[in-house]
Amino acid sequence: MAQKPIRFSNHARKRIALRGATEAEVVEAVQTEQWKPALQGKWQVQKVFQFGKPSPVNQKVYTLKTIRAVFADEEDSIVVVTVIVYYGNKE
């Protein structure tokens, strides 16, 4: 996969902030994980990160944080449209 610039929709930026992800984590996931088909011609990736902190969702401490990004592969850039974050203690 060619390295295209990665842009974030306003919706994705809001979800990143709300769900406790970072743009750097999303970029890393898109650049390093295998792309899988998503709905409406989009793509998705998922990457597990070590965490060990309280979740911003419920303030419980979790050892792992999984970032799932859904994005469009456009001609000149990749546009992240939403980000989902899962917290847990098992891989």
Q: Which residues form runs of ≥5 with pLDDT under 50?
A: none
Main beta-sheet strand count, sense and barrel state: 5 strands, mixed
SSE pattern: EHHEEEE
Count of the separate structural domains: 1
| Range of strand content | over 45%
Count of DSSP strands: 5
Structural class: alpha+beta
Radius of gyration: 13 Å
Helical segment count? 2
What topology, given as strand order, has the largest sheet?
1-5-4-3-2
Key words describing this protein structure:
alpha+beta, 5 strands, single chain, 2 helices, 91 residues
Question: Helices, strands, pairings?
Answer:
Elements: E1 6-8, H1 10-19, H2 23-32, E2 36-37, E3 43-54, E4 61-73, E5 78-88
Parallel strand pairs: 1-5
Antiparallel strand pairs: 2-3, 3-4, 4-5
How is this structure best summarized?
This protein is α+β, with helices and mostly antiparallel strands. The chain has helices at 10-19, 23-32; strands spanning 6-8, 36-37, 43-54, 61-73, 78-88.
Structure notes:
- The chain has helices spanning 10-19, 23-32, and strands at residues 6-8, 36-37, 43-54, 61-73, 78-88.
- With 91 residues, it is α+β, with helices and mostly antiparallel strands.
- The protein has one domain (6-88).
- The mean pLDDT is 94.
